[in-house]
Specification:
By secondary structure, the chain is an alpha/beta fold. The protein has six helices and five strands. The longest helix has 19 residues. It binds adenosine-5'-diphosphate. Adenosine-5'-diphosphate binds next to α1 and β4.
């Protein structure tokens, strides 16, 4: 039984994340989705909301692929969280050269701190490689249609979070 840890902000979960999760099912038997709650990263959706969304949108994928999925928050090092969840593999997605430079460097520093944990990089699929949560939020703020980029549940959550309260 191989367990993977996929850390991210998931603010909100996108079709890009879902593509990586679906493909991680070919690499690991169980995948822990680590929802980062680091104070330095200002998120639009609170962690409970991000977890509920991930639960809802990954359920069909888990049923279809047989991948066991669990979801947890973390606010320290990804390697520490991976270890806590008995994961031998950290999963990361690579979209472009910017991701590559940053992710490989981080993977190597994580490897130095935790040689027993291997980072596995999955190249983004062509149909979803342009999607970034930060741009999804910007588009939504400007009234754009984000249904191409995120599942309906996430679209509704973003719309609600951006709704003026007065
Ligand atoms: P972070 O705040 O670390 O960027 P994200 O939630 O944006 O967290 O992303 C988490 C992981 O998912 C990262 O490895 C990122 O490269 C990957 N990822 C994000 N969007 C995509 C996408 N469209 N295709 C493939 N991988 C992606």
């Amino acid at each position: 039984m191989r367990t993977g840890f996929y850390p991210g902000s998931f603010d909100p979960v996108t079709f890009g994340h879902l593509d990586i999760i679906a493909r991680a099912a070919r690499v690991v038997d169980k995948l822990v989705l680590g929802v980062g709650t680091h104070a330095s990263k200002q998120a639009l959706l609170d962690p409970d909301h991000r977890i509920a969304l991930l639960e809802a949108v990954t359920r069909p994928l888990a049923e279809h692929s047989g991948l066991k999925i669990s979801i947890a928050t973390f606010d320290g090092l990804a390697v520490d969280a991976a270890r806590r969840h008995h994961a031998g593999v950290i999963i990361r997605g690579l979209r472009d050269a910017t991701d590559f430079d940053y992710e490989v460097q981080m993977g190597q520093m994580n490897g130095a701190m935790a040689p027993d944990i291997e980072t596995v990089f999955l190249a983004a699929s062509p149909a979803t490689r342009m999607i970034a949560s930060s741009l999804v939020k910007q588009i939504a703020r400007m009234g754009g249609d984000i249904s191409l980029f995120v599942p309906p549940e996430a679209q509704a959550a973003i719309a609600a979070a951006l709704k003026p309260t007065h």
